[in-house]
Amino acid sequence: xxxxxxxxxxxxxxxxxxxxxxxxxxxxxxxxxxxxxxxxxxxxxxxxxxxxxxxxx
Length: 57
Fold this sequence. Notes:
- A two-stranded antiparallel sheet has the order 1-2.
- By secondary structure, it is of the alpha+beta class.
- 4% of the residues are buried.
- Helix content is 42%, strand content 25%.
- It contains two helices and two strands; from the N terminus they run αββα.
């Protein structure tokens, strides 16, 4: 993300845009670490978000 970007607002906008595109049974997970943002649309997407945070540490 470029410096000065409101990451929380960007994540919310991204999530709202992705939700209508999610297929039945899929969840949407948007996570960030530093200047990286991860968007996952999958069954149990939260697992990918947790793995992303574990790698970012």
